[in-house]
Each structure stands twice: as structure tokens, then as C-alpha cells.
Amino acid sequence: MKKIMLIKSLKRINILILMLAVISMSLLISGCTENTDNTAGTDNTPTDDTLTDLKLQIAGSTTVLPVVEECARVFMEKHPGSRIFVSGGGSSHGVKAVADGTVDIGTASRDLKSSEMDAHPDLVAHGIAKDGVAVIVHPSNPVTDLTMEQLQGIYTGSITNWKDVGGTDTKIMVVTREEGSGTRDCFEQAVMKPIKAEITDHGIIQDSNGKTRATVAGSAQAIGFISLGYVNSDVSALRLDGIEPTIESVMDGSYAISRTLWMITNGNPNSEEQAFLDFVLGDEGQRIVEDVHFIPVN
Amino acid sequence: MTRQTRERMIEALLFASAVTAVVIVLLIMVFLFKEGAPFLIRYGIHTFCLGMEWNPIAMDGEPSYGIFPMIVGSVYIAAGSLVLAVPLGLGCAVFLVEIAPPWAQALIRRGIELLVGIPSVVLGFFGLVLLVPLIRESAGGFGFSILAGSVILAIMALPHIISISADAITAVPETYKQASLALGATRWHTIRNVILPAARSGIAAAVILGMGNSIGETMAVLMVTGNTPILPEPLYDVLDPVRTLTANIVIEMNYAAPGDHREALFATGIVLFVMVAILNAISHRVLKSRMEAGR
Question: What is the separation of C-alpha B230 from the centre of its chain, rounded to a whole number of angstroms?
């Protein structure tokens, strides 16, 4: 009887080990994807100038992902036989993967860093869309307008109550994104960098635009920032220094928090890469950009 | 083929499958340490584990990698979940083994099995849309909190704690119970003074294993704890948000640039690994002592 019991308990220990193994495995896998050498699609000499043999690997920013996925789908429909593989991984991964030759095109929702330019001087970035980052609050919040100074105050943690910026007497719940996120980077560049300050440590951290929106939509005290394309009626987007975040204000540059979405090639694009880039930057591609709530560049 | 060679072959096959598990664990360990240990040594185990500030992408100045708040967060949430789950689980186990009529036993066992089957992400989502607002409105704070994480983890730990303690209680020799009842003790007296003490090491093992389980849990916790990489203020405030070690890895791994940041996340994995291994070792020890005592 004791033995049976022990075996049962040992089983539980095994579950624990297994659990740990799974965590480590996921680490292993995420490590591997970045270290893998060229496995496919880095052949720089297209064998045929028709597009039916086209084969491309694209990876990078999750912000750019919906644009690329939709463009790839339409492109493959128009050119039967062509194959485009799209995956996420984040902007940093996109830059590294294209520099390593793991993928043909990397995508990034932030500008190339100087460290990346130094390490990989051959990289060429092509702007395919623009995006604004909207500052959002709960729809019931009476505050509709913030100045840049007030926004900086809230995100550095020096303003902690809504009444200090014209709202009700409640604590401000700052919602921010994880370190490394392209949306966070865009916000930091525009809002925090001018005063050389870090985003407060006291904020709630969510790891996607969707979760940030859900968090702000569910809490009357919250303030957060998400990509303009994700703004819907669940939240209200604040005017910044009197300027509403809209497609027009981002395009003409009057809205302060905006960024360019990039496709990056290693060196000048080869004919396959160029074909897809032309498609994305053409009428159809730019319409898709608009459809997924980004702002066309052409 | 003679019977003997067939026997040998089967033995060899079984041996190979037995070794596979060990080899996999070893490979993972080697990989984990290969990726994270150089950083740990370079940055200093002390500064890493006891550092208070986590700021891997500094706008200005040096990045810092301190995971002490996350170690505290992990332990806090795991401990909190046990505080909630152990009394409940133990009560359930006692009822299940000693009191429940067969039909109720079957019903409860089915229920527990179902509870195990709920994916942790679903529990996390449940926490995000129901528990977090509930805590915010009834208890205050932002809702994203140690409390929310503990409640979700308690739900997840409950089935394990129930089944291990039920095993331990079942294993108490029937004669103890009969002797106690024959001496005129009531059922409750027997449970409290005879059965539970006799089963205590098994129950302790359940608690420790539950703790290891809780520390390793990721997705559900990530969604309800707010993931703020600082210590709660004041330290006992269970309504404050925290970040756990597991959440630290999951949240930042997607974006971490190769180099210090990524290696720091692997190093976080090492710390987690060591913590769970220690808990495992303790529960082994407890189980072993029980086995020896039982002889």
C-alpha cells in the first residue's frame, strides 16, 4: 500500500519535472529559432522571372504582422504557386533574422537602432506604412485632453491623481507595455526621451495592444497607449496638446506620437523581394494597410 | 529468435525509453546553463538575485538586471495560493476519504478531474475579466494583484493537493482508526488526533509539491498580476501588482535583443529551476522519511 502511494507521489514529482521541462523547452525553441542558420528561402538568385516560383520568408514585428499576412495572402492568390511564409517574433527578432539570413525580409515597427546599423551596415529599410500611438482612457473619464507635460508627468509617476489633470479625485492606473515592445519604444521616443526619463516602475504591464485596450476598457482609473489602429469605442483616445490622433494628423506630422513601419532587406532587394515590396507599396498593398487601420505612405 | 535474445531486446528497449527522460532533462539543463550561466557569473549572482531594479533597456545610462522583486513575487503568490488552497484541499480530502458516501465520492472525484482539465489560459482569462474587476471594486487597489494571482493559482493547485493528501489519508492503517474509535473517540476526534497526524508527512509533501507547481505556473498568473517589476509597497500589501519569474521570461522573451537582456532571461530561468529543484528535493526528503517511518 505504501508503495502504491509512493508511486503516486512520484508521479506528481514527474509532473513537476515535466512542467519545468516544458518551460525550458520553450526557452530552447525560442533560442533555436533565432540561432538557426539559413534553412530556406535565402537563395539570392531567383531562377525564374515569373512569380510562380517565388518563395519568401518574412518575420518580425507583431505590429506589422497583420499588414504582411494580408498582403501575402492576396499576393499568393494573384500569383498561384508563389509561397510567402510570415511569422512574428518582434522587431528586434525581425532585424536580427534578416541580418542573419534566416529570413528574406524582416519587419520592424521602430526605426533601426544605431547599434543595429553598426553591426549590419547592409540592411536597407523600406517604409511601408505609418502608425500613430494613441493615449487612451476609459470612456467615462472626463479628461479628454492632455498636454505633453501632463502626459510626461503621468508616465514618470510625478502625477498620480486624475484631479491634477482636470479629472475626478481618483488614483491614476498607468498601463504600459513590456520592455522591447515597438509600441513602447515609439511612445518612449516621443514622450519620454525629450525629458530623458524612464516610464514609471509602478505601472501595470500588459504584453499586447489588445490586452492594454481590454485593461483600460475595464478600469475607469486607467490610462494606456495603443496603436491607433486598435482604438475602438471601448476606450476613448485623448487629444495631445489639442491635437486628436487621426490618420490625417499622423500623416501631416502634427500628432506627436507616430512611427513608421518598416520592411527590411539585407542589401538592396533581389527581384523576388522587390516584387513583394512593389506589391505592398502599390495601390492594393496600401489599401490593405488602410484596411488594417494603419496609415498608407503612398 | 530464442526466448532469451527476445527478452534481452525488450530489456534494452525499456532501458532506452527509461534513459530518454533523463537525457532530455540533462540536455535542457545544459542548454539553460550554457545560455544563462555566463551572464550570471559576469553580472554577479548576488547583484542579479538581490538587485532591486529591472530595467533591461535603459534610455539613459546602464541597464540593470535585478530580479529580487520577482523572486519575492513568485514566492508571495505561491505562498498565497497555498494559504487558500491547503485548508480547502485538506478539508476536501478528509471528507472524500473518511466521510463521503460512495456516490458523493464519485461526484467529487469527477469534479476534481474536470478542474485539472481546465487550461490555465482559460483560468487566466476568467481572472482578467471577472476576478480583477471584482477585487478592484470590493477590496480596492487596481485589481491586478498578488491576491488575484493567488486565487487563480489556488484553483489550479487544489486538485493536486486534494489527491496527494487523499492518498496520504487513505494510507493511514485502518487499525489506527479502529483503535481510536474503539477507545470511544468521536469521528472528528479520530480524524484530528489520529488520522491527520499519521498522514502529516504526506500532507507536507503535498504542500511542498503544490508550492513548486505554483511557482512554475505562468500564463494564468501573467494575466492577472499586473507584472510590475517592483516590490509591493508596503511589503504585505496583497492588493499590489507584482511580477513573477515565469512572467518575466514570457513577457520579454519575444523582444529581448540577443546579448545581456536575453541571457538575463535565461538566468531568470536558472533561478526558477534551482528554486523548484530545491522544493522537489525537500519533498523527496519528506516522502522518504515517511516511508522509513512506515516500516
Answer: 22
Give me the residue from A13, A96, A204 closest to B144, CB to CB: A204
- The C-alpha atoms of residue B164 and residue B158 are separated, in whole angstroms, by 10
Helix axes B260-294, B3-43, angle to 10 degrees: 130
pTM of the model: 0.73
DSSP B242: B
What whole-number distance in Å separates Cα of residue A206 and Cα of residue B105?
42
Q: Count Cβ atoms below 10 Å from residue B210 Cβ, excluding itself.
A: 29
B59 vs A9, A193, A221: nearest CB: A193
B134's CB contacts (< 8 A; 6+ apart) are: B143
Cα Rg of chain A, angstroms: 23
The CA R_g of chain B, rounded to the nearest whole Å, is 23
Answer whether B243's CB lies under 8 Å from B228's CB: yes
Q: How many CA atoms lie within 13 A of B222 on its CB side?
A: 20
Q: Are A69 and A288 in contact (CB under 8 A)?
A: no
Q: Do A178 and B226 touch (CB under 8 A)?
A: no
| ipTM, interface predicted TM-score of the complex | 0.73
Q: How far apart are CA A184 and CA B54, in angstroms?
A: 16
In sequence order, the β-bridge partners of residue A126 are A263
Asked if A289 contacts A128 with a C-beta cutoff of 8 angstroms, the reply is yes
State the cell numbers at A235. Answer: 476606450
Q: Which DSSP string do the residues of A16-55 spell out, in sequence order?
A: HHHHHHHHHHHHHHHHHHHH----SS---S-S-SSGGG-E
Instruction: Please give chain B's pLDDT, 295 residues, in tens.
Output: 688 889 999 999 999 998 998 999 899 999 999 989 999 999 988 889 998 888 887 766 788 899 999 999 998 998 899 999 999 999 999 999 888 898 998 999 899 888 888 888 888 888 888 899 899 888 888 889 999 999 999 998 898 889 888 988 998 898 998 999 999 988 889 998 899 888 888 888 888 888 888 888 888 888 889 888 888 888 778 888 999 999 999 888 876 766 788 889 999 999 999 998 888 888 888 777 766 665 4
Cross-chain residue pair A207–B222, CB shorter than 8 Å: yes
The closest of A149, A294, A130, A144 to A223, measured between CA atoms, is: A144
Give the C-alpha separation, B88 to B82, whole Å: 10
CB contact under 8 A, A24 and B269: yes
